[in-house]
């Protein structure tokens, strides 16, 4: 396995670990096949898709945090009798 592909796998697995979104063995298998065929653009696309998925998860997390904060504020106001 080439160093670049090893690094790609490491990056994808690290991102997956951080965001609890596992990289399927199929993702890495496809990346390896495409790399062996010289299709670097396909590998880049797979990585781009993973990053977009992580961005969406991050946005969803921010929305959830905002909802929690809003609910906490509502509870605080109700507890104060407003």
UniProtKB/TrEMBL annotation:
Residues 54-81 form a coiled coil. Keywords: Coiled coil. This is Uncharacterized protein. The lineage of its organism: unclassified sequences, metagenomes, organismal metagenomes.
